[in-house]
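Summary for the lay section of the report: proteins are chains of building blocks that fold into shapes. Here we show the chain for Purine-cytosine permease-like protein and then a coded description of the shape we predicted for it.
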Amino acid sequence: MSRATERPIPPLVVSDTDDPAVVAAAGTEDYTLHATPLSWRMGRLSLASVWWGLASAMFWLILGALVALTVGTVDAIIGMVLAAVVYGAINAVFARHAARTGLTSNLFSRALFGSSGSLIAPILVAVTAIYFACFEGSVIAIALQEYLGGPVQLWYAVVVLYSVPLIFGALRTFLDRFNGILFPIYLAGMIAAVVWTGAAYGYGGGWLTQRPSELAVSGPGWWWAFTTYMADFVLMMATWDFARFARTSRRDRRFHSMVTFGPVFYFFTIVVNGVVGIFVALTIPTSGALSETSGVLGIVALMGLTGLLFVWVSQTRINTTNFYLAVTNLEGFLSRLSRVRLSRVVWGVVVGVIVFLIMLSNVFDFVLVALRYQAVLTVTWTACALVFLVLGRRLGGEAAIEWRPGRVPRFDAVGVAAWGVGTLVGFALLAFESAASWTGTWALPISFLVSTAIQATGMAARRSAQAVLARPHDPRDEVEDPWSSHVRCHVCGRSYVAVEMDRDPSAGHQAICAEHAQVNPEFSRAARAEAAGAG
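The coded shape description reads as follows.
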């Protein structure tokens, strides 16, 4: 068809206010499959209140103690400080870009790996969040059983039954208030645990000088401690899912970069919790080897009802985050495979059932093995994302990260290669850990460096941050402000901010939202054909 006979491009149906139907849906869905509009952003303290729920997990206390038992307290603290610095620096970068783009880790991954190449990102976060929901939920159940008696399976069910409804509402309308109320109780409980432990067993400095008679790890003890904390790099992906709710003012950006997602948060989460955990766990006598279970039982036995309340508050706060991440990312993953849309309530029930069944399998038996392989995937994802953002700024890619399904390739060769090769190297090193103990210490850093090198080399070679499909008729260019203008989608009839909208070549170039563009095969084929013709 010649240009003279092409059908005219239909005008966009634009409004300057939020679509009431979209806002109503966001009350439970939180724009999981869309760019988060500026009108749905949260205040600084509200967002910090939600995210800081992660800081209260008993996991951080007991992990600090376990690391100290392995390499000694001094080396453990050095490793914690180094981890807090690295976590804080990387997440400060991620938080700024998530706020600017309004994207989840799922949507942002399209810019890294392409519309199909990014498929693994949401399921990775969902599976990890489900696993930690099981892990932290089991801690509550064991504490309840210790204090109240009864079969632990009963308490597993109780934990799931009260946890699931907590994430039915929107993040910005419930979870910030809920976690805000519980945080002072958690702080009081942690202080009480330290005071109670010292009063009962003394404040001697033996825990500070504790060191194993023989170092059973490869490399310096402080380095092993640091790489142990690398195993929780899934927090880098989770940062995107929460920082997208941040407002974009300079004051908000600074606050979130330093406090909410940056060094202040990780100093408290890793260092303060870790040191408290070392003191409490190494001071309270426990039967058998130290574990998260024995540490919790020791606290409940020492502090009684107060200890139980402390454990319940700490684990409930973090489990609101775990369940929220599991539900939103599972929804994002399955929406890529099917056009079926389920409500937040249904997804919550599905996740609750999965969590309960895994709890029955005794999660503590295989947590460490599963997390080590999961860690490789999150570490290499972090490497790709960090290089993409930092190097992309020099290559002119910072202003407009392209993530819309019809304007990125199915697979970005650079990103897929960087993530894939780095992951394979990490898996291979872990597989040979029994034959060469050094691989356990170096698997994650080496896989991070491999992905970093490939991502940087590939971007520099093509001289661009990402591969983009060059297509005409961009709704972003047709409105005065793509963040304040709302455009109606011809598929669902709802209006979303123009920054996520595209033109659908398979439907006369009518506007289409990001959610339906991702799952519409006719749109996908037509968009690629249009890009090939334009090229």
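Put simply, here is one thing we learned. Residues 305-337 form the longest helix (33 residues).
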